[in-house]
């Protein structure tokens, strides 16, 4: 640990920026690092043998900014680990901060991190990170609720859930700590190098200080002609790389702390596995290869790791282990248990003793369902048009578990995908379904009013909304889930509007099978809608 008593006004941070063929964006990243002020002693940009104009951009910037040092690799490393290691080796400041060439550091990030590191003598300091979806500009918090601003974690084993944060870029590292423990990234083309680096950091048991400030903006460009390595999930190689990175990280953590190793396994089941299952797609070759690779890997998990996973993840893993090939109802996993929030889609099968099981073909026990609080039940709520500006909802029961809570009303809420508070719709009384299968209600679906509220909140052009249903029960619980669109609900509509002239409404199904909405009020909104569709089509053709 550095013995420096410097304040944040003293140059004490080396920001390592890595770049490969990113001439159009690297300047913004480097500028955001230089703009941190005097606390940043140097910005070390490592050009990983780019073949575009990245080297020229960096050289021009270094001529204007003495704090910028440029390292030109003569051979491309194939990954992110080697150039970051080059940056660590070249750093001369007490602290190191990492930045990718297509991301930015928000103002004051380095200052906030250094102040906390010095105050608490912490080898590692972490702050908030957001994933900024571009071009929309929607910010999605990374691992919300994982950290408490102002806390100091004496040992990572005291907070094993910290293994969920696998990023290296939202943290400040004491360089002497990295040197003492010989902590480096995997070299070469090693995808998900963050997993391994972070596991090595946590295994070294540093004190970790937490700041509430936003310290990193992770730009996500899903429509880019060349997506980032972590988003390039079109073939089995990406998943294989992630599994291998997790295997390495899990062993590193388990060797240092059984608690951390166990938490890493549970995290894989509840996060990595479900995320990739949501994106499994329809290609039979990919599905079969993914299923085999995943099943083989899960076979090595300890029973205690499976038992400790949340019910949705535990059931998913056991279905995978029970079937050598993707089952006929694999869509129930993809758009049900893998969804967020999770849903257990019908049909609801029972075993010989009447116990809940996954299906008649795969009688995997749904253990723990009886003990889940009503608020945590993986409910399914179906939605279809009812006419007259309303939707008909059917709330499915779960083996009598929801009936025990005595559902009374259902209420819709609309969450702006650009961020912000939900728009709530007044609750509507639920009635038992005529066929005895759950409860039903007709709920007003006033799209013009929703578009007007979006405009009032500053949403211009195309508006995007997620739709949720909350079921209020007599026992005080209020489980919330997404809607499963049925029948003709997904038909695009051009609605006359006294306010906008025309309102273009496009209900659509998300990757996890949930209902979402795009609203385009007026001619300007409709134009944005058309432009976005063209952009998505171009991006698909370019891949």
Short descriptors:
disordered N terminus; globular; 9-stranded mixed β-sheet; alpha+beta; 543 residues; 15 helices; Immunoglobulin-like; Spore Coat Polysaccharide Biosynthesis Protein SpsA, Chain A; 3 domains
Major sheet attributes: 12 strands, mixed
Cα-based radius of gyration, to the nearest Å: 25 Å
Q: Fill in the CATH topology of the largest domain.
A: Spore Coat Polysaccharide Biosynthesis Protein SpsA, Chain A
Relative strand content = 15-25%
Mean pLDDT: 91
How far is it from the N-terminal to the C-terminal residue, by CA?
Answer: 46 Å
> How many structural domains in the coordinates?
3
Percent of residues in helices comes to 25-40%
Continuous helix count = 15
Helix- and strand-based class? alpha+beta
CATH architecture annotation name of the largest domain = Alpha-Beta Complex
Quickly name the level 1 CATH class of the largest domain: Alpha Beta
Low-confidence segments = 1-6, 537-543
- Find the count of extended strands (DSSP E, 2+ residues): 23
Envelope shape: globular
CATH superfamily of the largest domain: Spore Coat Polysaccharide Biosynthesis Protein SpsA, Chain A
């Amino acid at each position: 640990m550095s013995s420096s008593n410097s304040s944040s006004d003293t140059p004490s941070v080396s920001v390592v920026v890595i770049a490969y063929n990113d001439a159009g964006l690297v300047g913004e990243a480097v500028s955001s690092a230089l703009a941190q002020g005097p606390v940043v002693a140097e910005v070390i940009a490592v050009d990983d043998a780019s073949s575009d104009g990245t080297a020229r951009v960096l050289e021009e910037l270094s001529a204007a900014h003495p704090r910028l040092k440029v390292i030109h690799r003569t051979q491309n490393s194939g990954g992110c680990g080697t150039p970051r290691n080059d940056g660590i080796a070249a750093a001369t400041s007490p602290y190191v901060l990492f930045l990718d060439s297509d991301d930015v550091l928000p103002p004051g990030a380095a200052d906030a991190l250094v102040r906390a590191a010095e105050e608490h003598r912490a080898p590692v300091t972490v702050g908030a990170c957001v994933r900024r979806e571009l071009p929309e500009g929607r910010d999605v918090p990374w691992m919300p609720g994982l950290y408490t601003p102002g806390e100091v974690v004496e040992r990572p084993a005291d907070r094993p859930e910290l293994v969920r944060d696998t990023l290296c870029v939202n943290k400040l590292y004491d360089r002497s700590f990295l040197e003492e423990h010989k902590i480096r990234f995997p070299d070469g083309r090693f995808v998900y190098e963050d997993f391994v680096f972070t596991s090595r950091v946590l295994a070294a048991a540093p004190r970790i200080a937490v700041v509430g400030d936003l310290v990193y903006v992770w730009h996500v460009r899903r429509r880019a002609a060349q997506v980032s390595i972590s988003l390039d999930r079109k073939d089995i190689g990406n998943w294989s790389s992630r599994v291998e990175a997790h295997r390495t990280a899990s062993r590193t953590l388990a060797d240092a702390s059984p608690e951390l190793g166990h938490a890493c396994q549970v995290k894989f089941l509840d996060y990595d596995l479900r995320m990739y299952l949501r994106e499994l797609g329809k290609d039979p070759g990919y599905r079969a290869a993914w299923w085999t690779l995943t099943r083989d890997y899960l076979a090595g998990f300890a029973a205690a790791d499976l038992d400790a996973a949340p019910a949705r993840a535990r059931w998913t893993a056991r279905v995978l282990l029970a079937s050598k090939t993707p089952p006929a109802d694999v869509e129930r996993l993809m758009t049900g248990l893998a969804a967020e929030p999770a849903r257990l889609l019908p049909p609801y099968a029972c075993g010989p003793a009447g116990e809940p099981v996954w299906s008649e073909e795969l009688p995997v026990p749904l253990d723990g369902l009886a003990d889940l609080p009503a608020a945590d039940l993986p409910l399914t709520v179906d939605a279809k048009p009812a006419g007259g500006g309303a939707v008909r909802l059917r709330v499915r029961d779960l083996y009598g578990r929801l009936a025990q809570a005595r559902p009374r009303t259902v209420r819709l809420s609309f969450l702006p995908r650009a961020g912000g508070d939900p728009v709530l719709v007044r609750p509507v009384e639920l009635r038992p379904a005529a066929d005895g299968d759950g409860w039903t209600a007709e709920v007003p679906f006033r799209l013009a009013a929703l578009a007007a509220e979006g405009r009032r909140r500053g949403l211009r052009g195309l508006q995007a909304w997620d739709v949720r249903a909350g079921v209020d029960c007599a026992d005080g619980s209020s489980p919330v889930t997404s809607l499963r669109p049925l029948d003709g609900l997904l038909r695009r509509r051009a609605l006359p509007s006294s306010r906008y002239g025309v309102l273009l409404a496009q209900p659509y199904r998300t990757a996890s099978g949930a209902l979402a909405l795009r609203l385009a009020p007026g001619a300007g909104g409709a134009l944005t809608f058309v432009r976005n569709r063209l952009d998505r089509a171009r991006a698909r053709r370019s891949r």
